[in-house]
Design goal:
With 604 residues, the protein is of the alpha+beta class. It contains five helices and 24 strands. Helices cover 15% and strands 26% of the residues.
């Protein structure tokens, strides 16, 4: 896109205000802003409090900034300018030493105010407003066949601008209609610049959604590495009718972040993996092919090494390892990559994970044969990066409370999903085995196996968080309340976990849900028997324990509360993923499916 015909003025804070005397000698390689305190000598907000950034790009003015140290939030009122033209208004920055590669991260508080086209916010790195790369949430217009705008929707995008013109635009295809982000309370964006100058992006949120944006060809820009690179946040809008305010919870820079695996297949913990499936690993920066091949090992269930050949992509990022023999069936196998190196010879982090094979030889990870169940593939969750530092503040108390609330919403949604009645689509094909059927249901082996039907589970809808403005005080009483809520959420999570291992025919929706495509395909039903539908399962929540340690107003207590609520969220996320992929035989109690629960096509 060409530059506009007029020149944009650039507002710069005088140099005397930009850097503290102690940091003026050199740009830092690491930076951490939690917006909990004002930083003297930095870009001021509307009240004159230092935000921690050292400069502003574009036509921005401090009047658009609000540093709320009580909440630990920097709010930015968006103005005209975005990553698809040559302006970058409200582009706050500070100079960092990016000579060896680095990672930039920020957390946006949500749900983000994306309502009209070109509302957006995120992070950027580069030389100035005409030469930069951004990772942003942005609302883009939706057009009909005639090109007329009929609405808008949010996406996660990487944008690159050089000499004032947009030269590339990268989006994650799987997030092109990324409406889920509107329900998230905390959204973390990470922009990683590898040592060779190539850039990748990562989105993660408190709903457990993760998206990796790694361009098919390296996304680079001259001047994006070096001793003085600008890096910061931006909030923009080309919509003249509204200027939403975006809330940034933190901003960090980590020098020389090192290479990271952005995709592995089979995934960690994957089951039912084809026994001849190759193992694929993708890094976010080039690696040394010989060093990676030497570092790779695959061990069988008895711990013995399994030979495998290695092949690398031309750019040194993607590797495929092919076992020399079919792997043992229904067994755990462990992958280890010990001592890999970057393309420049520098050491990289070790990696290891395990997966379990199925019965089928298969050709693709996760493929299965008859009798192994046809479930949906659910991408593994990648933990969102979290700052391990916990401070004794009302802000941390609110964060803990939000985590507990997220757990409660998930528990309510999962409870409703079960209580609404399990349908045929919720069950993986071929999942119901002989052991699940009542004793008086008579079956035999068939010489003409049926084709298992693919699961298509009902969506499990987690309601969005409620937005409240009430102030929270850091008191012993509030800490006790938060701990009780977190503990109750964890007890519910564990009760639901037990229930999902003990479903019965009584949990099925009326009408006979077990069709022939849901039965083990090698079974044929000869007689339904006389057993009536078994009573449905029940969520039995353990009562709270009495007594316990005294509650104290301390960082230790905040950490305890956070661990309890985080454990509840992790447990419930695992259960949500489980039902999203489809129920299997393991979800039903033995002998709990009666003949009356079978559909007409499964009956003799």
């Amino acid at each position: 896109m060409s530059r506009s015909s007029f020149t944009r003025a650039r507002f710069l804070v005088p140099a005397a205000l930009l850097l503290l005397p102690a940091t003026a000698a050199a740009a830092p390689s690491d930076l951490s802003l939690d917006f909990g305190t004002a930083v003297p000598g930095s870009v001021p907000d509307a009240q004159g409090e230092g935000t921690g950034f050292t400069g502003i790009e574009g036509d921005s003015v401090p009047a658009n900034l609000d540093l709320d140290t009580a909440e630990g939030v920097l709010r930015i009122v968006s103005t005209s300018g975005d990553f698809i033209d040559n302006t970058q208004d409200n582009g706050l920055y500070t100079e960092i030493d990016g000579a060896g590669g680095f990672a930039v991260r920020t957390t946006l508080l949500g749900p983000p105010p994306l309502s009209d086209p070109n509302h957006g916010a995120g992070i950027w790195v580069g030389a100035d407003q005409d030469n930069y790369i951004k990772l942003v949430l942005i609302q883009v217009p939706e057009r009909d066949a005639d090109g007329d705008i009929i609405g808008s929707f949010p996406i996660v995008a990487l944008g690159r601008e050089e000499t004032g013109q947009t030269v590339s635009f990268e989006v994650d295809p799987s997030s092109l209609r990324f409406d889920q982000m509107k329900d998230a309370e905390r959204i973390t964006l990470t922009l990683k610049v590898a040592s060779d100058g190539s850039v990748s992006g990562r989105y993660s949120d408190d709903l457990g959604i993760v998206r990796q944006l790694t361009p098919t060809s390296p996304l680079t820009l001259t001047g994006i590495t070096g001793p003085a690179v600008r890096s910061g946040v931006v909030a923009t809008s080309k919509n003249a009718f509204s200027s939403p305010t975006f809330a940034f919870d933190d901003f960090t820079v980590e020098g020389d972040a090192g290479p990271s695996i952005i995709n592995r297949s089979p995934a960690s913990g994957a089951g039912n993996v084809g026994r001849t499936a190759p193992i694929r690993v993708v890094w976010d920066e080039p690696m040394d092919p010989a060093a990676v091949a030497a570092a790779f090992s695959l061990a069988g269930p008895d711990g013995s090494a399994i030979p495998a050949s290695a092949a690398a992509s031309a750019d040194g990022r993607s590797f495929t390892f092919t076992p020399a023999e079919a792997l043992a069936a229904t067994s755990e196998h462990r992958v280890a990559i010990t001592g890999p190196r970057r393309a420049n010879g520098e050491p990289a982090s070790d990696e290891s994970w395990s997966f379990t094979t199925g019965l089928s030889l298969g050709s693709d990870p996760g493929s299965g044969g008859l009798g192994t169940g046809r479930c949906l593939a659910v991408p593994p969750r990648v933990p969102s990066p979290r700052n391990s530092q916990i401070t004794l503040t009302a802000k941390q108390l609110r964060i803990n409370q939000r985590i507990s609330a997220a757990a409660v919403r998930r528990a309510n949604a999962l409870q409703k999903w079960i209580d609404d009645g399990i349908t045929a689509d919720d069950i993986c094909g071929g999942a119901i085995s002989r052991a699940d059927l009542a004793d008086d249901v008579v079956t035999t082996e068939t010489l003409n196996p049926a084709t298992p039907s693919l699961a298509s589970p009902r969506p499990l809808v987690v309601p969005p968080p409620r937005r409240g403005s009430a102030k929270i005080k850091l008191t012993t009483r509030q800490l006790r309340i938060n701990q009780r809520i977190a503990s109750a959420a964890l007890r519910r999570a564990r009760a639901l976990e037990v229930r999902l291992r003990n479903l019965t025919g009584g949990d099925l929706a009326p009408g006979g849900q077990i069709s022939v495509g849901k039965l083990d395909p090698e079974l044929a039903v000869l007689s339904l028997g006389a057993t009536t539908t078994v009573a449905s399962s029940v969520t039995r929540v353990r009562p709270p324990s009495r007594g316990g340690d005294e509650i104290e107003r301390s960082v230790r207590q905040l950490r305890i509360n956070q661990r309890i609520s985080a454990a509840a969220v992790r447990t419930l996320n695992g259960l949500v993923d489980q039902v999203s992929g489809g129920l299997t035989s393991d979800n039903f109690r033995n002998r709990s499916v009666a003949g009356s629960d079978l559909a007409s096509d499964a009956r003799p």
